Amino acid sequence: MRAAPLLAVDGLRMHFFTKAGVVKAVDGVSFTVGRGEILGLVGESGSGKSMTGYSIIGLVDPPGRIVGGSIVFDGQDLTRLDAAAWRAVRGNRIAMIFQDPMMTLNPVLRIDTQIVEAVRAHADVSRESALARAREALVRVGIASPDERLRAYPHQFSGGMRQRVAIAIALVNGPDLIIADEPTTALDVTIQGQILFEMQKVCRESGTALIWITHDLSVVAGLADEVCVMYAGRFVESGPVADVLDRPLHPYSRGLIESVPSRNARGQPLRQIPGMTPSLLGLGAGCPFRERCASATARCAESPEVTEPAPGRRLRCFHPAH
Amino acid sequence: MAPRTESPWARFRAEFAESRLAMAGLALLVVILALGILAPVISPQNPYDLAQLDVMDSRLAPGEKSADGRTYWLGTDDQGRDMLSGIFYGLRISLGVGVASTVFALAIGLVFGLVAAYFGGWVDTIIMRVVDIQLSFPAILIALILLAVLGQGVDKIVIALVTVQWAYYARTVRSSALVERQKEYVEAARVLALGQARIVFRHLLPNCLPPLIVVATVQVAHAIALEATLSFLGLGLPITEPSLGLLISNGFQYLLSGKYWISFYPGVALLLTIMAINLVADQLRDILNPRLRK
Amino acid sequence: MLAYAIRRFGQSLFVLVLMSFIVFVGVYAIGNPVELLVNPQADEVERARATAALGLDKPFLEQYWVFLKGAASGDLGRSFVYNVPALDLILDKLPATIELAFVAMVIAIALGIPLGLVAGLKPDSAIGRGIMAGSILGFSLPTFWVGLVLIMVFSVQLGWLPSNGRGDTLAVAGIPVSFLTADGLAHIAMPAVNLALFKLSLLIRLTRAGTREAVLQDYVKFARAKGLPQSRVIGVHVLKNILIPIVTVIGLELGSVIAFAIVTESIFAWPGTGKLLIDSINQLDRPVIVAYLLVIVTLFIVINFVVDVLYSMLDPRVRLGGAAASH
């Protein structure tokens, strides 16, 4: 067994209390991330993967609320922190990058302002030394002529460049963990590859752990060490990325993997998962996937417990594939 | 979301009723409208009939009794006019002027807005340039100058209000008609060679209605407030047909001697009227604005 | 930039000439001022002499031409009533109006933006709802009636504040202002609050709507993810974005505040241009009405220009004309 993980999310539950009823956006999710490790958090839109990310960094807004579970980061349970203590962690030890780079930078503030404020929110340093760190961070994410770029406004940058700036802002305080919420989906494919490469490189170099939230299994395959699959707000299965992708145990992960086009299966029709993702509003007990699952039995109306079918593998299913 | 199967109208009513404040506003508005319409029936006195006025009863405080034993619940003005009756009749005039000017301005603005959107080109440019120039000046200034030129009278003030208001409708109609015009069904109607008037009135018009209803509701309140202001400045209605603004203006000179009621109660009536309309308008805007739709 | 400024200037000049014609035509139609000015017992000869003295016997277009020539050299005619240049009369009263409008706007901005922010950040809280209810009330209250109520309460009942006039003034760079003396402050308090009320409600709504939209934006979430204190997220990231539409509206409303000062000045007998306008309309003092309108139109044009400049300073996307964007 390894040393205590950097982050251990255990039985996390985050619900939205709307007028129409309770939406269980995250309902029992557990995983761990070791220092310097890359975790791929995979699921369809609405699976609660982004909300899990927001929960970890403490950006859940009302009517959403963390109602259960723990988020232990470097020995302290974040869910017990008060607002000020959580703010000190946010952007300093845990950073986040968002999906759409066109929207994440403030359009009316210069790049230098936006990086320097991130530095000075956590360290009592002069503007000059904050600027020096900003310049350094831009260089690390592969931005040429940083001095010129620092004085620019976001609208003068392309989407890929803006995402690099956002990554630089996330990196600037040397965090232990970065949560990346589909940061490449909004970009061109060629740029996607560059950003992925850059991200992987910086994280390896600096020993920063990374949670990469995505719906794209092919991204996870090339990037992550571990993968955790979510469905309808709930944990499905997790394990080392090669194991899970080669031998998925849960019928949902298997369906997900089979629906990705691959070179080996060229010419064959793609498999699809029948049916639709269930509404999270008033979703009851039992496996949420049972309506669409070929292996489902009457027993699936109860909620399965999380089991450990193999070392390092965790699963929540009564009828795992073999 | 649970599927809803009710008619659009039923859904509209249900959504409107979601805000208790808006329902209160609507109820208040209905009461005010009833008071205005029924003024001749329910007023204790006809405030315009000089024979019914008694100078001995002038400037009585609220609650005091007249020589022949009637109670003036809201007091009397300098001519011995019962303020309660004056307010009912004043409401009638204020509401009448507000609604009439809105209807005319809406009709004119609708036509110009649709024409501008449908024909585009130089027609659009000219109409919208006039609208822009006019809207860059405060309504009160334009109305003031117009009344200074035209003189007093109900017809004059309606003309002034229509003149300052039509541009709002023209702009609203044009912008939503332009959006609609881009849509496929209008193109389809053109391909089907439907008449231009038919395209405009059967296809463009109905889709411009929601924003227009919101603007019109707000504008009725504006028109009433503007009329009252102009009358207060002595430029609106003649003294023979006192609207709420004129009643307030009448009482102004007695305010400093502590006879507050002559100005105060007509002001309260005016405030309640405008507030009721604004509450209804706010809720209408929330319901009819697709951007705020959940 | 220069080409833009020149084009703007040309447009402004066109609007000004157009307005002068419309105003002149409109005002020309007002009754005969001679009737008001000469002795009712005066005979025809005397009337004709008065008419000729005022230049009213000439054809309309010639009167306009004379007016236009004069206007180009800063002469907007002489007041029929006071027999002094109309422009001097306006400029003499203008500082009082501008001071009133300015103080009112300061009150509206100083209260409206913070209250709107609070209401926008906590739309469902009691305080947020309270602020909104207050702004609906402020929108519904007719300005002139609020003025009367203020007088009723603070002058008649409590006797705290004077109900009319401007009070003691102090000259700053040759321009008399009220807000530097205690007496002046007492005099300006009620009219300024009265005039500010509507704009205050407007600013509250505008700020609230902008805030509600801004807090949902990703850049606000990203700013919070950086661990910035709430004060910086709100005070810089949210505020700077919502300030763009607010500055535009404030600029545009400045003109309407000056126009609405007509009402407030009439109620509080504030010796400004608005009161002068109403008096002039009642006395059919044509040149003063025309001069007032032209001065106001010029003021509007200047304000619009300043707003455009401010706007481009706040929004970098406008400043660089979007041309520098590299997508």
Give me a quick take on this structure.
The complex is a heterotrimer of chains A (322), B (294) and C (327). Chain B has eleven helices and no strands.
Question: What does this protein look like?
Answer:
The complex is a heterotrimer of chains A (322), B (294) and C (327). Chain A is of the alpha/beta class and 322 residues long. Chain A has a domain at 1-87 and 177-183 and 214-262 and 271-322: Rossmann fold (3-Layer(aba) Sandwich). In chain A, 31% of the residues lie in helices and 24% in strands. In chain A, the strands form 2 sheets. An 8-stranded mixed beta sheet of chain A has the order 6-7-8-3-9-10-12-11, sandwiched between helices. In chain A, a hairpin with a 2-residue loop joins strand 9 (226-231) and strand 10. The longest helix of chain A has 18 residues, at 189-206. Chain A is globular. The two termini of chain A are 25 Å apart. The model of chain A has no long low-confidence stretch (mean pLDDT 85). With 294 residues, chain B is an all-alpha fold. Chain B is elongated and about 75 Å long. In chain B, helix 5 (121-135) crosses helix 7 (154-181). The model of chain B has no long low-confidence stretch (mean pLDDT 80). Chain B has helices at 8-17, 20-37, 39-42, 83-119, 121-135, 139-150, 154-181, 184-191, 196-232, 244-255, 261-288. The termini of chain B are close together. With 327 residues, chain C is mainly α. In chain C, strand 1 (170-172) and strand 2 form a beta hairpin. The longest helix of chain C is centred in the C-terminal third of the chain and has 39 residues, at 230-268. Chain C is globular and about 85 Å long. Residues 320-327 of chain C have low confidence and may be disordered. Chains in contact: A-C, B-C.
How is the secondary structure organized here?
The complex is a heterotrimer of chains A (322), B (294) and C (327).
Chain A: E1 7-18, E2 21-33, E3 38-42, H1 49-57, E4 64-73, E5 76-77, H2 83-89, E6 94-97, H3 101-104, H4 111-120, H5 127-140, H6 146-150, H7 159-171, E7 177-181, H8 189-206, E8 209-214, H9 217-223, E9 226-231, E10 234-240, H10 241-246, H11 251-258, E11 307-310, E12 313-315
Parallel strand pairs in A: 3-8, 3-9, 6-7, 7-8
Antiparallel strand pairs in A: 1-2, 1-4, 4-5, 9-10, 10-12, 11-12
Chain B: H1 8-17, H2 20-37, H3 39-42, H4 83-119, H5 121-135, H6 139-150, H7 154-181, H8 184-191, H9 196-232, H10 244-255, H11 261-288
Helix pairs in contact in B: 2-4, 2-11, 4-5, 4-7, 4-9, 4-11, 5-7, 6-7, 7-9, 8-9, 9-10, 9-11, 10-11
Chain C: H1 2-28, H2 33-37, H3 44-54, H4 60-72, H5 86-121, H6 126-140, H7 143-157, E1 170-172, E2 175-177, H8 182-214, H9 218-225, H10 230-268, H11 273-282, H12 286-314, H13 316-319
Antiparallel strand pairs in C: 1-2
